[in-house]
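Changelog note: in this version the structure field was regenerated for every chain. One regenerated record is shown below for reference.
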Amino acid sequence: MGEESLTKLFRIDCGDIYLQEFTVKDAESIYKISNQPEIEKFLPDWKSTKEQRVNWVTNDEIPENKAFLHAVRTRTNIDDHILRLGIFKKTTNEFIGWCCTGMKDELPAPNREIMYAVSSEYHNNGYATKATKGLIGYLFENTNADVLNAIVLIKNVPSNKVIEKCGFTYLGQQMIENQIYNHYVLSKSGWIKNSAL
């Protein structure tokens, strides 16, 4: 039995999908999705070889997730910790994408961002919106995060729509690494107000 089957994995229920912390066995799915042309075009930093991805998941992403979750359990102050969660279809337990939060150094403080990707074969099913809303709810209900950011390439129309559906407010354009992004923010108070509607 693998180590991850001995421990209960962190999970956020999002209806017909769920978010779950990365495991080593997810590395191949992350590798395949991150190398899809539709994903690589908007998230080139996620492209890797299979060996790189296994190494990153094992030595960086799993320990960083554990540190984030430990910070939430012990003090709710997540500082600059990173959380990377897989998006899974509930009916099949298939890994179909990821939804993450971490610091975006190119943005002014507070600069915690949310980002996501869904496999091209599962686009237009609302999974990115459900996953993002699930992670937003978790962060605002369980951590000290008061503001979340999202940056989306202006030409990535579907992702801009996801962010807007999640209640983010357009702040303006941001130049990062010679690319123009739309910059959105969502405050905890704005999220609470939208949740009450």
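Spot check on this record: The longest helix spans residues 50-75. Residues 1-6 have pLDDT under 50 and may be disordered.
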